């Protein structure tokens, strides 16, 4: 799926201004991450039930790319199995880095395909992977 510039802007701004998975009352227990190239701050929590991700929510502040990508990732990853999420995150990160992916893989990204220009702006890569980096560590390395 591809989007024109106006559609990309609308999707990013919508998820930046009104993120569906941002929870200001996130419990104290949670995973924290600070931006590597800017002042983005993320705290997230999740549950795993029957090998499936549930209640992946976040709180934080930062740029539009960070908040929009985090919200869209929560939308996609909630209800995925651990294995599905691992495959999805691999495709998403390859896409952001400009590594070629198949059309089917691009279709699975859904609205996350709006970040196709991130590969041209390295600092934005850090913003768009604020959730995936610590989540991978939590889900796949424990």
TrEMBL record:
Q: List the Gene3D superfamilies hit by this protein, alphabetically.
A: 3.90.1010.10
Which segments does the entry list as coiled coil? none
| A single GO molecular function term of this UniProt record | iron ion binding
Might you name a Gene Ontology BP term for this protein?
iron-sulfur cluster assembly
What organism does this protein naturally occur in?
Answer: Mycoplasmopsis columbina SF7
**Which SUPFAM superfamilies does the UniProt record give?**
SufE/NifU
Matching entries from InterPro entries are given as:
NIF_FeS_clus_asmbl_NifU_N
Q: What is this protein called?
A: NIF system FeS cluster assembly NifU N-terminal domain-containing protein
The NIF system FeS cluster assembly NifU N-terminal domain covers which part of the protein? 9-126
* Pfam families according to UniProt: NifU_N
